[in-house]
Amino acid sequence: MMRTRFLPVLVVAVWATPPLQGDVTIRSRNSIRFGAVLPGPVAQRTRNGTESPMPDSTVRYRKGAREYLKSGTFACLMDFDPQTITILDDEHKRFATVAMKEYAGKLAAAFPTLPPEYRMAQAGAKVSLTSRKTGRHEAMQGVEAEETEMTGSVALPVPAPNGEMHSEPLIQLTLQVWLAQPAVRELTGHTWPGAGFSLSIDPANTLGSAFGSMPGLGDALSRMLQEVEKTGALVLKSHLEASLPGMASFLQQMRREQGQALPDAVDVNAPFSVVDTEVVELSTSPVDDRIFQLPADYHAAPFEEVVKSVMPGYPRS
Fold this sequence. Notes:
The chain is α+β, with helices and mostly antiparallel strands. Helices cover 22% and strands 35% of the residues. It has one domain (8-310). Strand 8 (143-159) and strand 9 form a beta hairpin.
């Protein structure tokens, strides 16, 4: 059942008080769709688009400086006073705790690196990012939200007819986020101390894993998510499209040279991946302290082992 409860006095008195960090429950619905044409690296990470790395729901509980987050098999405890994050492996009753500032680096080290054939392209990838407020507003779960749109473009080195290499924009990410207005400061989240990780949109790093397998695409996504996290605002809804606008002509030419034709229903210009998140429950009711406690029967384990066990986006054979 969806619940929304805010005290009117909160909104009235908000500008006269410091940011509040009260009890909050946030439940989101997530979805990911794949297009008819998938880049090879993403196809490998998603079993040719038949295996979704995106958990269909995410729940976050907040009380003061502590948060508990669960998204599919991924669960963690965060304490923003000592700046630590603890990953929980419920199946094996174990955990791993690291400093928040080290989390993104350790996470990247635990996942496979780019295949050798993509490393040269990665080194030559050039990422550009633009951001704008669209001026659109919408009430969601009783809270006014404002839309911001970001576009990330990735230029990769391609061979020219004369044999030289030049950069051409081949990949594009478009992200629309609806952020809760700053007047509702009780919903203002904690600032994550580092780049490349998003509590709001990609808490289990599933998108970072799938898109990170493509040269430049992971970097573009990380920069966009970092801009969102800097706001500290609650993301009430997001829509992400990943497309290959510069690859359509190459794909069609390659198919012609091989004597093959794409089916009429296949749109090579359509996004190869579309990701949506939306808050479906928002409550300021008291949260049980026990949610933020590490289970007594859990034992410490190496970070890499715990992450590989619980990350839904981790490639499996």
